[in-house]
Amino acid sequence: MHNTTPRRGLKRGAIRLTRRGRIALIAIGIAAAATAVAVPLLLPEEEPRPKTLTIPEGWRSVQVYEAVDKALDVPAGTTKQAVSKTDLKLPGDAGGNPEGYLFPATYPLSSQSTPASVLSYMVNTANKKFSGGHVTAGADRNAVNVYQTVTIASMVEAEADNPADMGKVARVIYNRLDRGMPLQMDSTINYALNRSTLRTTSRDTKIGSPYNTYARMGLPPTPIANPGEAAMRAATSPTQGTGCTS
């Protein structure tokens, strides 16, 4: 009669592997590990960062911030937050607000580009463009400073239907300033309301904002967009005339 009692030390259900079996399991494990490592390499590659960023004439700073965020693939709002943390070479009149000094152009981007570096590039470009003798001479001739000239150019950019009308719009602005008239520019109200529209209602003209040029005299406190070279030329050398309506 055979002894059916399990051998001491060997649990029921335990399986003993032969040397060949152990080798097979090891091989399977290695293959599985190799597959796990290979999977990420098979995923689609991320889209490469664009090599340039183009800022059109007349964009507001909020539009520029959004474009930089997208181009650099950073979370929304990152570029706007970078403004206060970056030593931008802005004029004292700007009070740290780069509106008007994010110069419209095509800027190169690299893997090292950051919101701060891109903003600095734009402001430095604006300073070079706005420091030319024709700009300072034009500002003196029109009895305004350079920052005010940029502010006027930003309104010209927003108000003119085409480049040919820019000089005429600039002349209207200067004539109204000289005669102590409110500028009554719809573009400044649109800026205050963060919108773009061709219709301005009577109610709109009563909003309590320093950008309401219907109710307040003089220029708005800052530029309302980022003007290009054509608008700056119009602001420094407006069309001659005495009209006060556009």
Automatic annotation (TrEMBL):
Listed Polar residues bias regions: 236-246
InterPro entries in UniProt: MLTG-like (IPR003770)
Annotated GO MF terms: lyase activity
Keywords, sorted A to Z: Cell membrane, Cell wall biogenesis/degradation, Lyase, Membrane, Transmembrane, Transmembrane helix
Pfam assignment, any one: YceG
Region (Disordered): 225-246
Membrane-spanning segments: 21-43
A Gene Ontology biological process term: cell wall organization
Protein name per UniProt: Aminodeoxychorismate lyase
